[in-house]
Amino acid sequence: MCNEFFTLKEYDEAAQAIQGRTSHRPQIGLILGSGLSPLAEEVAQADVVPYSEIPHFPLSTIEGHAGKLIIGGLAGRTVMVMQGRTHYYEGYSMQRITLPVRVMQLMGIHTLFVTNAAGGINPAFRPGDLMLITDHINLVGMAGLNPLRGPNLDEFGPRFPDMSQAYDPTLQATARRVAADLGFNLQEGVYTCLAGPSFETPADIHFLRAIGADAVGMSTVPEVTVAQHGGTRVLGVSGISNVAITEPSQDRETTHAEVLEAGKVIVPRLVRLLKGVLRELPPV
Ligand code: HPA
């Protein structure tokens, strides 16, 4: 399904179904990328809602994405964690994979932390690095697959949203400070999203490097576009799970197993970084 357009009523049905399952009132959303699900185990007094029990929610179809909402306390905040996301390559429309972001907006969530596993394009990056996302290249959107295509819902935001500061500068500054205090290196750069599911050819990687991408994945950009449309502040962090292959090679390949494995070394630092940022958020 390439396109489907949801109504405010449908977004609202999903939001109400979630609110009926928890007495927590989350203000911060977290989306966990491939292999990063263990972060959700940190949530205290958790209420768990499987995506399958929420009207209109897309269901995760791949390993490493549990498909549950975990709502509870983390670092003194009330959060709603998406343990697993869905991707365009799974066969869903852009509108459906980003539906959870609009549902968060209706629930009053004002800040979204997005994480993903990504391939490192910047030659300075190593597997296991964390990269603060400073901006993105919406290649898939440029090709026409923008989640905001279709009737604009003015209740969420304008027809032509500004994207000049999609990743909140204050949250970025906080993340840099927290990483420095924790004593670990935080890379930064531009993320780009391809539709997948095939990984990139070496020529794709040369192209992506030439246009200014530091990391590549198959997610995040649609969610951030919808977050920005609805005025949600975004912090984005990529876990560099592998470095991109830049020459045809018989003895190296990129695999999903490698991506999941890297998650194990990435998660502990990602947890400390995100908890540190949560603690520093101004009270609302
Ligand atoms: N390419 C695209 N998506 C990815 C990669 C990659 O190398 N690693 C993790 N997600």
Jot down its keywords.
284 residues; alpha/beta; Rossmann fold; globular; binds hypoxanthine
Produce the secondary structure layout.
Elements (H helix, E strand, L loop, with lengths): L7 H12 L8 E4 L12 E7 L17 E7 L2 E7 L10 H4 L1 H8 L4 E10 L9 E8 L1 H4 L26 H14 L3 E8 L8 H9 L4 E3 L3 H9 L3 E11 L12 H25 L4
Parallel strand pairs: 1-4, 1-5, 5-9, 6-7, 7-8
Antiparallel strand pairs: 2-3, 3-4, 5-8, 6-9
The protein binds hypoxanthine.
Bound molecules: hypoxanthine
**Spatial order of strands in the largest sheet:** 5-8-7-6-9
Q: How does the major sheet shape up?
A: 5 strands, mixed, barrel
Low-confidence stretches: none
State the CATH architecture.
Answer: 3-Layer(aba) Sandwich
Written description of the protein model:
This protein is α/β, with parallel strands linked by helices and 284 residues long. It has one domain (8-280): Rossmann fold, CATH 3.40.50.1580. Helices cover 30% and strands 23% of the residues. It contains eight helices and nine strands. It has helices spanning 8-19, 94-97, 99-106, 139-142, 169-182, 202-210, 221-229, 256-280; strands spanning 28-31, 44-50, 68-74, 77-83, 111-120, 130-137, 186-193, 215-217, 233-243. Strands 5-8-7-6-9 form a five-stranded mixed barrel. Helix 1 crosses helix 3 and helix 5 (169-182) packs across helix 8 (256-280). The chain is globular and about 55 Å long. Residues 117-119, 199-200, 216-218, 241-242, 244, 254, 259 line the site of hypoxanthine (HPA).
